[in-house]
Amino acid sequence: MNRRRFLGRGTLYAGAMGMGHVVAPGVFDMRPQMLSANEAPPNQEAIFSRPSLNEIDLSKASIITRHGKLPPAEETAAVVLVQEVEKRTGIRLNTSTRWPADATVIAITSEKSVPGWNHPVPARSGTDLPETRREGFRLYVDTQRQPAVVWIIGADPRGTLFGVGNLLRRMNGSQGKLTLASHLDIATAPVYEIRGHQLGYRGTPNTYDAWSPAQFEQYLRELTFFGANSVEGIPLQEREPSPLMKFPRREMNRAIGEICQRYGLEYWAWIPATFDLKDQARRQKLLNQCEEFFKDTPVFTGFSFPGGDPGSNPPELVLPFLEDVAKLLGRIHPQARVWLSLQHFDPPGVDYTFNYINRHMPTWLGGLVAGPGSPPMEGVRNRLPERYGFRDYPDITHQVRCQYPVQDWDQAYALTEGRESVSPRPAEYAGIFSNTAGYTNGFISYSEGVNDDVNKTLWSALGWDPSRTPREILVEYARVYFKPEVAERAATAILALEKNWHGPLVDNGAVEGTLLEWQQLKKAAPDLDANWRWQMCQLRANYDAYIQRRQGYEARLESKANVMMANAEKLGADKAMAEASHVLNLAVTRPISIELPRRISELCDKLFHSIGMQTSVKKYDAAGEERGAVLDFVNYPLNNRWWLEDQFKAIHALGSEGEKNRRLRQLATWEHPGPGSFYDDMGNIAKSAHVVYCYPDNGPELKKHPQPTFWWQDNGKSRARLSWQVSAWPIAIVYEGVDPNGTYVVRSTGSGQALLRINGERVESSVLNKQMEGLREFPVASQYVKNRKLVLTWDRPKNEEKLNWRNKSRLSEVWLIKES
After folding, report:
1. Are residues 211 and 335 in the same domain?
2. What's the distance, CA 418 to chain centroid?
């Protein structure tokens, strides 16, 4: 993986794990070692290990804090540790400001000396140590004193909260037991200053609208375990409540702000203008709503405004509006700043924005925000004055029709699991993070529910320490959210879920193995059945396996139906269609599995009641079919059954038996055009053997040739042929070993224009139909086949450059037909 090297604002130091100086066997020189500019950064979490691998017993430990009123984050850190330990072990740790005489102590402080404590706060010599930098901490087990002391020493109050989260990731706990490795000594600070996630309490998400303030607090708390320090709300868009909301939006927005205050977190808000800002009445109304929100929340960090998606105002209107927002902020939250996203600004609009910034150097501007539809990050960062920040807004919640679609995704998944299903993508997002984060001061991710929970954890952890591997993070994820006994296996099983999604599903032999592993984990840890993260992983494993079984089964049924249609002249057209329909309908009357869909339904129900996940529009009030409603698509046809049923109705109406037979033969041989001919389905990676989609890895043109586009038609319940529900513009289609004396024609389906080149030369069509179901045909001149190789390429229509992507020409299927 191409991991971009990035050195944070602070200097990184090497700890003992292979980077310190060995001065004696088992002893490490803990003096800081500065990295040179050309060295790769070490793990930012410097772990100083001592030889002993023993554990200390914390089951009767006392948590000690400073006397008097504590900063909110430090006070909350102690509360979090008490409550989370009790959830995992049943042990209620005692808290006090006085040291016990004969008990193990967990000491939490952000002060370097605490009057009245029996023991001085340990400190290492050196300057700019990780634990002295903003949000940093040292987690240290002192076994020289007996009973031992576990120190959580924060560089600031928020650092103590992150120290507690790190401790929870490392404890070994079960009912009535709690231990910790006695050799632990960690000093660490985050590399990126902004590490957050957008959690919008509105009707659109597949989860958040069903939550109470207590559920929001628990989730925000858990995000801090891996270093998240920011939360972005969506307080004003979609004023209408969803049917699942138990609390008014204004009340919840205020509650989230109060939670952030207690935890010492940054509180941001994403507030678009979905109307024309020339409308003075609506403009003033939005300003009034902003002012009300600013007054409601006790803490506030940043106002994020999207230039587009939604909204379509030019910067000439946006920037004066943001100036007015800044005036309101200055009176209520003087430290807060306004941030602007350049999403969907055209090049003149981008230039206007930078000219404005360079001319006025506004003090109210915190910085710019990247995101889907934004200009390239490198160019923005290079043009933006250093005094301003640059924050990413990565879409980590969607897997199709989005910023980062799954690479080499099978259409069967796109048709069923869709846009917002449970989507752990740790390896893929680790690569994306490494290629983008270095341009930024951090990120606040776009999320529409907990379906991306693993992804949030990964981004949070990498934002703290970019050198960590996905597997390391997942092991800790499983330790803290599942239990230590299954952590290694669960981490491997989550990685396996990601691999389920790559490559042709028909050839993916690991899918059933992934299901088996999760089934065995279920037996090994039955006490986790009520754990919503566990339920999500179980859902994905069962769903993937069911889709794979259905895909193979329904493909076989369609093949049998094709044989019957091909024999229409012998059987009679009506009888052939009746028998083909009966075979195709076996997918419904004799399903491949009864157990798996039952299990999927059961898990969807559990997830609705455990975390509010809405996997069905009708059953669980999902905001829409595209919003994670996977239960509604679990039996969507994975062959062309629906399309063929509609074709049969049309064929029945034909007057001539010969015409019926001709049409049935065409359907039967659609993907099998005969000897010497070839068929490629552009969006089906299992049926596009001749298609070249992208250049080799790291090629400069890689990003210019995206993956196939899976279209969303009829709310996902389209009856169109499956190959017409996906399109792609390949780099080329290459046919090797064609007959140099043969006569060929290129045939294709798609919509709009098809500007074909054969061996680099433009050719004109003899039959042109711009509708999806219409065929285009291009005769292949004899000179093109003389060297036994054909290379097909397509020019992009220049007159479509300014069209919305939904309205541009598409290419869906391509045949090379040998006529003689």
Report:
1. yes
2. 13
Q: State the Rg of the chain over Cα.
A: 30
573-584 and 657-668 are packed helices; what angle lies between their axes, rounded to 10 degrees?
30
Q: Is residue 709 part of a domain?
A: yes
| Number of domains, the chain | 3
How far apart are alpha carbons 299 and 296 in whole angstroms?
Answer: 9
Please identify, among 408, 439, 467, the residue that sits at the C-terminal boundary of a domain.
467
Are 181 and 198 members of one domain?
no
Whether 84 is covered by a domain: the verdict is yes
Q: Say which range, 42-46, 294-298, 303-307, 668-672, has the weakest mean pLDDT.
A: 42-46
Distance, C-alpha 441 to centroid of its chain: 20
Can you give the residue range of the structural domain that contains 207? Answer: 194-467
Q: Is residue 515 part of a domain?
A: no
CB of 726 within 8 A of CB of 707?
A: no
Q: What is the mean pLDDT of residues 250-266?
A: 98
Place of tokens 């009641």: 609
Other C-beta atoms within 10 Å of 310: how many? Answer: 12
pLDDT digits (tens, 9 = 90+) for 401-458: 999 999 899 999 999 999 999 999 999 999 999 999 999 999 999 999 999 999 999 9
pLDDT for position 418: 96
In this structure, are 165 and 206 located in the same domain? no
| Environment class of 336 (CB within 10 Å of its CB; exposed 0-12, middle 13-18, buried 19+) | buried
Last residue of a domain, one of 151, 171, 188: 188
Q: Residue 612: left (phi > 0), alpha (psi -120 to 50), or beta?
A: left
Say if residue 748's pLDDT is above 70: yes
pLDDT given at position 806: 78
143 and 216 together in one domain: no
Closest-CA residue to 734 (of 796, 789, 794, 694): 789
Same domain, 717 and 789: yes
Q: Omega into 147 within 30° of 0, i.e. cis?
A: yes
Q: What is the CATH number of the domain that holds 681?
A: 2.60.120
- DSSP output for 322-346: HHHHHHHHHHH-TT-EEEEE-TT--
Go through 464-478 and write b for each residue having 16 or more CB atoms within 10 A of its CB, e for each that does not. Answer: bbbbbbbbebbbbbb
Of 157, 183, 189, 155, the residue nearest 170 (C-alpha): 183
For strands 137-142 and 185-188, give the pairing: antiparallel
Decide the pairing of beta strands 761-762 and 365-369.
unpaired
pTM for the structure as a whole: 0.91
> 402, 440, 424: which is closest to 501 by C-alpha?
424
DSSP tag of 785: G
What residue type is 519 in one-letter code? Q
* Nearest partner of 671 among 764, 562, 533, 785, judged by Cα: 562
In a domain, 789, yes or no: yes
Cβ neighbours, 10 Å, residue 594? 8
Nearest Cα neighbor of 497 from 481, 514, 512, 482 is 514
- 173 and 294 housed in the same domain: no
Measured between alpha carbons, how far is 688 from 315 in angstroms, rounded to an integer?
Answer: 44
> Residue 331 burial (CB < 10 Å; 0-12/13-18/19+)?
exposed
CA gap 384, 132 in Å, rounded: 30
CATH number of residue 122's parent domain: 3.30.379.10
Three-state secondary structure readout of 485-496: HHHHHHHHHHHH
62-64 and 55-57: which strand pairing? unpaired
Degrees, nearest 5: CA angle 154-157-160: 45
CB-CB contact of 448 with 206 (8 Å): yes
C-alpha 203/C-alpha 213 separation (Å) is 16
